[in-house]
Each structure stands twice: as C-alpha cells, then as structure tokens.
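#onboarding

Welcome to the new folks! Below is a worked example of what a typical request in this channel looks like: someone posts a single protein sequence, and someone else replies with the predicted structure as tokens. Don't worry about understanding the tokens yet, we'll cover that in week two.

Example request:
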Amino acid sequence: MAAKRSPQMPGRGSDDHPVVVVDSREQRPYAFKARRVTCVRRALPAGDYSLAGLETVVAVERKTLDDLVNTVIWSRGRFRRELERLRTYEASCVVVEADLRDVLTGKYWSKAHPSSVLGAVMAIIVESGVPVFFCSNRQAARLFVERYLLRCHRRYAGQGPQKNRPQDAPLVLPAQGQQG
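Example response:
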C-alpha cells in the first residue's frame, strides 16, 4: 500500500518534487534536473532563485565573478538594498560562480583591488549575515543551488516563515578602496 501524501499548498510541488521559482530577470538561468525539481519563471522580491510558496523565506542570489565585483564595488547601493531584503529571509545566500582564489588573484575585468573585493565580501557576510559561497564554476554553482533549494524545501515546506535574522542594525558595506 502506497504512503499517503500530505495535501500540497498551491504551486509548491510535492514533498519530494519542489517547484523552483526562477526570477524573470535572471538572464542565464540554471537548467536543474527535471526529475528533482520543476521550474517556473516569475518576478521574485529578492534573489534569483526561490521555492514556490516560500518566496519570502528562501532565496539564492547568483553572481558571476565579474558581476560580483561590479556589484560590490560599483553598485553598492542597489546591492545593499537587495541584501537588506535577503537578511530578513530564513535561508538566503549569495552563490558565486568562481573560486575565492580568482578574487585574490584579480581574475576579473574590473581594476578593483582584490583586497577591496574581499573586504566587501566579508562585509556582506558579517554585516548582513548573508553567507557568500564561492562554488568554483557555473556547473558547481548550479549543483550547489539545486541541493540548497532541495534542502530548504525539506526544512521549510509546510512551515510559515520564522524571522530570526537581526534586522535592527543598518547594513554597511565598505567604501571603494576601503578594506574590510
């Protein structure tokens, strides 16, 4: 006799087959394994990837190395606002399609000093509480995001959001040229 499944919330997928929401502005979305997840595209309040029904609980922001450097050095204001939203989520992170070694050796287009980039990344982690994961390349990052979302689905499906990240302190990213 087959086990009974619990009722699904609309758009959430089954307990073992979640629905991944890909932000409609994401220019190069990951191709996740169809046997593991179903993907839909629509605008997300924060991040590039989330789970249906958990769009304000779980989010992943994807960055190439050049995009990360440009964002943390030249577009800090917009990214700070994104981090302010992400820090209120139960589970959020920034995933970078590069190694930390690539930051340290300056393997990006910008002329920004590696210490400035690393300082900005450290500020994101410490000041916002949003972890940054360097995943070596696009393929490894896709696998990381897929597994992260699957784990979050197992943990948060059927639960309401539990806000537990600090929201009182303002988020401060270091100024250009300032090391963190």
